Amino acid sequence: MRFPWLIFLLIVFPALAVAQYGTVTGVITNAETKKPLAGASVFLSNSSVGSASGSEGRFTLNGIRPGQYNLTVTILGYQDFTKDILVGHEPIKLDIELTPKPLMLREVTISSAADWKKNYEAFRKDFIGVDENAKNCVVENPHILNLQFNRTKQTLEASGDEFLIVDNKALGYRVKFLLKGFISDRLAGVISWGGERLFEELQGNAAQKKKWHEKREECYYGSAMHFFRSLYTNKLTEDGFIMYHLNRQINPNRPPDDVIRKKANFFGQRGMVDSFNYWKDLSTLSKYYKESLNKVPVMPYEIFTTTEKQGIYAFHPLNYLYVVYTKRRDEVYNKDLYRPLDMTNYETSILTMFDPGYTLFDMNGIVIGQPPLLEGAWSKSRLSDLLPVDYVPDVK
To answer: Looking at the structure, do residues 234 and 362 belong to the same domain, yes or no?
Structure first.
């Protein structure tokens, strides 16, 4: 009598597993003519879920891990459409209208081939990275980028009207990135960018897929995504994370970033090299001093609460949260990262909160809205180390 029950379980359990994932369907039309639009790219930003609209403008996205996503629709000649959606077990149906994009002449910056190449190499370093994974990233269409370097402000800016396509042969993904804005501020020491990206699996043999899997696991464990998932599942200690409150004061010997930038801009435009270099050197000073850690670790209940929305959580530490990952060491010296002399050189990250109230994140471990400023291990992560937000690691 066990055999029929075995058949029943084999039939039911896969169905139950599928039911745990969400579905998004919809129709895409022209906002003016109301006619369906075929060939539009439809994807959940930062995930591996994407498709294209058919001849009648219809699309379907299946097998979506529950969580908060940014649904993005893009097609040549129309303004991009984005919408935050909370995917659960109930199907989501959308009617999407795209507005034709007016023909605009974009300002063209004329630069030499040598300048473009120099700016591109700096962009690649800041955006893709410099680690071993970055060495295995191939940019298929670098010349879609518009690159500008401001010498007086010491900022590199990049943008593009098309998908920047990067084959990450270290992790086995093709990443399509709609880069909405990128800026590398040399004086402030801050790199920021915005945009939407889609992950697609690269084709490979069994040996390659095994290597990609190992690399993906290496990138996931200890990452910010791993930390936030461990936080809401109450597995921080089990997963190797320890949190502390960091006390620090602003360094009075280093002027604010806006003052440094203003002075450097003033002297740079006037060709006053010595004065320009003086203010540029001030930017290399540490922003903080008198740093110390509270010896008692922070407990999850002190900084974490649920919200009224299922799958959305609130994160509310004090200004600076010091996160240690005890399952990986970091022996590379970082002059800007405070580390007590009696602390083992574990991987460490510092989160500076912009919102004095709280920050929201979802069950995929992704921050909703403005993310905190990152220092230390997590700040080193570039496109070469990124995983889709719906990535599921092995259970260890």
So the answer is: yes
Per the DSSP assignment, residues forming a β-bridge with 90 are none
Instruction: Specify the residue for token string 């850690």.
Output: 293
By the 8 A CB rule, do 230 and 221 touch? no
**β-pair type (312-315, 359-362):** antiparallel
Other Cβ atoms less than 10 A from the Cβ of 236: the count is: 20
Distance CA 375, CA 358 (A): 19
| 335 shares a domain with 246 | yes
Token pair recorded at residue 265: 């801009």
Going by the DSSP 8-state scheme, the letter that residue 103 receives in this structure is P
The strand pair at 373-376 and 346-352 is best described as antiparallel
φ and ψ of 34, to 5 deg: 65, 15
Q: What DSSP assignment string belongs to 161-217?
A: SSEEEEEETTTTEEEEEEEEEEEEETTTTEEEEEEEEEEEEPP--HHHHHHHHHHHH
- DSSP assignment letter at 365: S
State the DSSP code for 136: T
**Which residues constitute the domain of residue 198?**
113-209
- Bridge partners of 159, per DSSP, are 146
Residues 6+ apart with CB under 8 A from 311: 66, 67, 68, 86, 88, 362, 363
**d(C-alpha 381, C-alpha 374), whole Å:** 10
146-199: per-residue pLDDT in tens? 999 988 788 999 988 889 999 999 999 999 998 888 999 887 778 888 888 899
Q: What are phi and psi of 307, to 5 degrees?
A: -125, 180
Query: What residues contact residue 8 under an 8 Å CB cut-off, 6+ apart?
Result: none
Contacts of 334 (CB under 8 A, 6+ apart): 376
User: 68: domain CATH number?
Assistant: 2.60.40.1120
Q: What is the pLDDT of residues 14-36, one digit of tens each?
A: 333 334 788 999 999 999 999 99
Give SS3 for 224: helix
Phi, psi of 337 (to 5 degrees): -105, 115
Given phi > 0 = left and psi -120 to 50 = alpha, else beta, which region is 376? left
Are 371 and 231 contained in the same domain? Answer: yes
Both tokens of residue 324? 């240690």
